[in-house]
From TrEMBL:
<dbReference type="InterPro" id="IPR053209">
    <property type="entry name" value="Gramillin-biosynth_MTr"/>
</dbReference>
<dbReference type="InterPro" id="IPR011990">
    <property type="entry name" value="TPR-like_helical_dom_sf"/>
</dbReference>
<feature type="repeat" description="TPR">
    <location>
        <begin position="291"/>
        <end position="324"/>
    </location>
</feature>
<feature type="domain" description="SET">
    <location>
        <begin position="360"/>
        <end position="555"/>
    </location>
</feature>
<dbReference type="Pfam" id="PF14559">
    <property type="entry name" value="TPR_19"/>
</dbReference>
<dbReference type="InterPro" id="IPR046341">
    <property type="entry name" value="SET_dom_sf"/>
</dbReference>
<dbReference type="Pfam" id="PF00856">
    <property type="entry name" value="SET"/>
</dbReference>
<dbReference type="InterPro" id="IPR001214">
    <property type="entry name" value="SET_dom"/>
</dbReference>
<keyword id="KW-0802">TPR repeat</keyword>
<protein>
    <recommendedName>
        <fullName>SET domain-containing protein</fullName>
    </recommendedName>
</protein>
<dbReference type="InterPro" id="IPR019734">
    <property type="entry name" value="TPR_rpt"/>
</dbReference>
């Protein structure tokens, strides 16, 4: 996935931009007028049913251009409501104002028709306590893994139009009329929508269920909840169970209801709530362990990444119920997660296998090695670290893969406030992040910490703290979108430097600890970042001292200085004060341009013997290959230019890597290899020079044996770990092997494996990528 592109200036999208601007004009025209709800209840229900039927048909696009499905409008008052529902004053549909956020008010309604998706919104028909009806339009909701997602967000039961739907409290209601088809009460922030149960202070008396004399309301409500659960209407079941708990159930009934509600929360992946219900039963059980409560609490804690508590509960469960196979399986997985979390002990083969899938998601725990978050939030070394050491493994907060967005469901999002039109992938990711907040699977404090000092649409600066209201984290979609825009990154599911039969999948994801907020930038970094599916990995690329800030390269230092600074200045901005930038600043543009000109000369000269024609394999076309004399002459001229280019540098290559020198040296190596055995030693020297240009330094230990297998190579100084060095090191190993210098070749291969681990995350990828190369040399890898 590529970074977002503004399509608003493209001619083919002009009609969409024009339409969006007309909508904004219309909204401004009617803003502040009193809403008049539709007078015909049957007409609203009929129109909604027609939309519901139409939405069930597979949606396609015309001429391959996605339809616009979401027009985003924001006014200064449209942030999420922070007040608790009990602090808000009730309001009716007829008291709403068009396009005005009714701050400090709460609208209580119930759903009277099944929901459907229209124009990117989840829609349903609602009525208030006066019987007035309107359309409810909910945006930015996403239920992962739930086949019944729409009805879990807007649950309804009973006959359409006959009442009986879940009662909802909409905090700070906003009524919008973009067009006749898209008018209604609009909810942008997931936390503005609350589900009411009987016994809630806001639940209208007229909607309460009245039970026959002699019946037990708590039991009846539990039974109704069970019926909803059986029909897989989990949200409705939760509301019924909650109502039952508010009707003074007996202790045994309370236990049963809490168990059922915990299971319903698990079905909706709301793990914090599931854990709370199960833990309450465990506390009430005393010395009599409850098998179901222990298992459900364990499942919830496992999903929340709270593996120590999950282990404690599972051990208690297995001691009392040793035949529970599900618990035994979960116990084994929990121990694996703890090994990952505390020791960094991962099954790398399994991670690689998962990463090769089209939409990989690994089931692993996070790991922090010899690093920690400092007081200012940056990741620092808490001890001395050796090059290659695993620093961090972090599972993405949320990710999105292209395969998860079917063509018929692709969206265009037009932000009329900022004039930005783009694909809807970013918004889809934001919605998924919001769902993680609801599940509790992500630390809200850590997530909203990314928002600190971010400008929300260029206006207020966020505090960076999570806010809780009505026992849930306030999920302001604008804040989450600002976080996503600033810190979500496109990523490959495996590092491209690891050779593969097919390129790795691409995705868009958000990581918290591995973000620019915590891991700094340097053109001369001390760590390398790689990915295994949705797992971000950091490894030290040189020895690191205790207290040193951990840094990676966000913008490749081979880019011109001004381009690097422009990219790094993009919000939220990442400063770079490394020695490399300081040196380039002092050199000035004239010297840097001199290097560009020399590289261009190399490219011009190489046209006499193009690199693609310098093949040495058996399948080359000798009739079309350049003459050796020509290649030898070209190599001589290129070598001279390489010397001139190298002479423009005055600082050590470890402080100022010679990036412009890499391409000419790679070409020169190809020339010498093409010229055959007489130039093999020259090829080895050029590759050694390539590594030296990046700051690497090696010590050769002479061969003292009688076999003449060459000496050992020892890496004594780490340089810049450019992905291309892996191939260079493999070339060194291969050539030395062919020359009979097996000890030297083995040393180069060892260094290549270590480099593969640092750059791509693990050395197992070395075997996958280069096994055929070594097999062709009859060299067992």
């Amino acid at each position: 996935m590529q970074a977002a592109e503004n399509l608003a200036n493209k001619e083919e999208f002009a009609p969409i931009v024009e339409y969006g601007n007309s909508v904004l004009s219309h909204l401004n025209l009617i803003r502040g007028r009193t809403v008049i709800p539709p007078s015909s209840r049957s007409a609203v229900l009929g129109a909604h049913e027609a939309n519901r039927v139409a939405s069930s048909v597979q949606r396609t696009t015309q001429d391959g251009v996605p339809n616009i499905t979401y027009i985003f409008h924001r006014s200064p008052a449209s942030s999420a409501e922070l007040s608790k529902k009990g602090e808000l004053k009730p309001i009716l549909l007829s008291e709403l104002k068009w396009c005005e956020r009714m701050t400090g008010r709460v609208l209580v309604v119930r759903v009277i028709a099944p929901p459907c998706v229209v124009e990117g919104a989840l829609c349903a028909v609602i009525e208030d306590t006066n019987g007035s009806v309107h359309i409810l339009r909910i945006y930015n909701t996403f239920y992962p893994g739930c086949a019944y997602g729409e009805r879990e967000i807007i649950p309804v039961w009973g006959n359409a139009g006959g009442g009986g739907g879940v009662a909802l409290a909409i905090k700070g209601p906003y009524c919008e009329a973009a067009t006749e088809a898209t008018s209604g009460v609009r909810v942008d922030h997931p936390s503005d929508l609350l589900y009411l149960s009987q016994g809630d202070d806001l639940y209208p008396n007229a909607w309460k269920t009245f039970f026959p004399k002699g019946s037990i309301p708590s039991e009846k409500l539990k039974d109704e909840g069970n019926e909803c659960f059986k029909s897989k209407s989990y949200r409705a079941a939760i509301c019924k169970y909650t109502s039952s708990l508010k009707r003074n159930p007996t202790d045994s009934l309370k236990t049963s209801v809490l168990l059922n509600r915990s299971q319903a929360y698990l079905q909706l992946e709301e793990f914090s709530n599931a854990a709370a219900d199960a833990e309450e039963i465990i506390a009430l059980s005393g010395d009599q362990p409850n098998e179901k409560a222990l298992y459900r609490a364990s499942r919830a804690h496992y999903a929340l990444g709270q593996y120590d508590r999950a282990l404690e509960l599972l051990q208690k469960l297995m001691a009392a119920f040793p035949q529970n196979r599900d618990a035994k399986s979960l116990l084994s997985k929990t121990k694996w997660r703890l090994d990952e979390n505390k020791l960094g002990k991962y099954d790398w083969s399994q991670l690689i296998e998962e990463a090769r899938k089209s939409a990989p998601r690994a089931e692993v725990a996070n790991y922090l090695g010899q690093v920690a978050l400092s007081e200012d939030g940056t990741v620092v070394a808490k001890g001395d670290i050796k090059a290659g050491e695993l620093l961090l493994c972090e599972k993405a907060t949320e990710i999105l893969y292209p395969t998860e967005i079917q063509d018929e469901n692709r969206e265009l999002v037009f932000d009329v406030t900022r004039g930005i039109l783009g694909q809807g992938e970013g918004w889809r990711l934001t919605q998924k992040i919001a769902s993680k907040i609801r599940s509790g699977a992500t630390s809200s404090d850590d997530l909203f910490g990314l928002a600190k000092n971010l400008k929300i649409f260029g206006e207020e600066s966020h505090s960076g703290k999570a806010i809780v209201s009505d026992k849930q984290v306030v999920a302001d979609i604008h804040v989450l979108e600002a976080i996503r825009e600033a810190y979500a990154i496109p990523f490959p599911t495996l590092h491209p430097a690891a050779p593969s039969n097919s390129p790795p999948a691409q995705g868009l994801g958000l990581w918290i600890i591995g973000s620019r907020v915590h891991v700094g930038h340097s053109c001369l970094p001390n760590a390398c970042r790689s990915f295994f599916g949705d797992i971000l990995v950091l490894r030290a690329c040189r020895d690191i001292k205790r207290g040193e800030l951990i840094s990676i390269t966000y913008i490749h230092p081979s880019l011109p200085l001004n381009e690097r600074r422009t990219e790094l200045a993009r919000p939220p901005g990442v400063p770079c004060t490394c020695k490399f930038c300081e040196i380039e600043e002092q050199e000035g543009t004239e010297l840097r341009q001199r290097r560009v000109d020399l590289v261009e000369k190399v490219k011009e000269i190489s046209q006499r013997a193009p690199a693609e024609m310098l093949r040495t394999d058996a399948g080359r076309d000798k009739s079309n290959s350049p003459d050796d004399a020509v290649v030898r002459e070209v190599a001589k001229e290129v070598a001279t230019l390489c010397d001139e280019l190298d002479a423009t540098y005055t600082q050590p290559s470890v402080d100022q890597p010679r990036f412009p020198l890499l391409e000419p040296l790679a070409y020169l190596f190809a020339c010498y290899l093409y010229l055959g055995p007489s130039s093999t030693e020259d090829a080895l020297r050029v590759n050694a020079r390539y590594l030296s240009a990046l700051g690497f330094s090696f010590q050769y230990v002479s061969d003292t044996g009688e076999k003449g297998e060459g000496g050992d190579m020892i890496l004594i100084q780490h340089g810049y770990y450019h992905p291309f060095i892996i191939k260079t090191l493999v070339q060194q190993a291969s050539v030395c092997w062919q020359l009979g210098k097996k000890r030297t070749a083995t040393a180069w291969k060892r260094i290549a494996e270590n480099s593969m681990e640092i750059i791509t995350g693990h050395r197992k990828l070395f075997r996958d990528g280069y096994q055929k190369v070594f097999e062709s040399l009859k060299w067992e890898i």
